TrEMBL record:
HTH gntR-type domain location: 2-69
Keywords: DNA-binding, Transcription, Transcription regulation
SMART domains reported for this sequence: FCD (SM00895), HTH_GNTR (SM00345)
Pfam (any one): FCD
CDD domains: WHTH_GntR (cd07377)
Record's protein name: Transcriptional regulator
Length: 231
């Protein structure tokens, strides 16, 4: 495939998240440049960025490789999300624009319409867009960047199951959007905190000790057993 040079980082990251480049596998500039149809310069720059984000590590005698995060590192992601998402919702309630609110309400309407008949992938995508829009509505580039990076890394490390009650799940999204629309920062924060806690059982590690089968996450507040994509 051939992609624009500025999109190389996104392309490599997406391929890491989806497993095209497996955990621990080598990432050689020459092969990556050939795969994405670019020179080695943007590949080299992309690898530096991905190393800073935690997707890539540089090993002696091996060069760039896909990182192999530990269970503790994976758990830390969900704990960090549990702290930052409510902050983002609170700020969104104070800083959102009418355009943000229009998108949030549109996503809630679609989610509620399809909660009973939509596919798992469709509902997951809508949920991801809802959380991404909410992060952008916070009007804080640094916070938005952190939440975006968290979303990518959580999607890489976890399998996210469909919520047991999709109708109730989208009712929670609707309540959060309503609090944001009314400018109620504390309610938006509290509702997001509860939403994340209720979503926690749907997260399963893609790897366990020794790279074995996936492992269910039970509680976002406890070490290893602690928002793809975010839902």
């Amino acid at each position: 495939m051939r992609i624009p040079a500025h999109s190389v980082c996104t392309a490599i990251r997406d391929d890491i998240v989806t497993g095209v480049h497996g955990r621990g596998s080598r990432l050689t500039e020459e092969l990556l440049a050939r795969r994405y149809g670019v020179s080695r310069v943007p590949v080299r720059e992309a690898l530096r960025t991905l190393e800073a984000e935690g997707f890539v590590v540089t090993r002696r005698h091996a060069g760039a490789c896909v990182a192999e995060p530990t269970r503790r590192e994976a758990a830390d992601l969900l704990e960090t999300r549990a702290l930052l998402e409510p902050l983002g919702a609170s700020r969104a309630a104070r800083r959102r624009t009418d355009a943000h609110l229009k998108v949030l309400r549109g996503l809630v309407r679609l989610g509620q319409e399809r909660a009973g008949r939509g596919t798992v992938d469709e509902l997951r995508s809508l949920g991801g867009w809802f959380h991404e829009t909410l992060a952008r509505a916070a009007d804080s580039p640094s916070l938005t960047a952190l939440l975006t990076q968290l979303r990518h890394k959580i999607a890489w490390m976890y399998v996210v199951e469909a919520p047991v009650g999709p109708v109730e799940h989208w009712a929670e999204h609707a309540a959060i959007a309503d609090a944001v629309a009314r400018g109620d920062a504390e309610r938006a924060r509290a509702l997001m905190t509860r939403h994340i806690e209720r979503s926690a059982p749907g997260y399963r590690l893609r790897f366990a000790a020794g790279g074995a089968a996936t492992e269910r996450v039970r509680n976002t507040q406890h070490s290893v057993n602690t928002a793809s994509p975010l839902r």
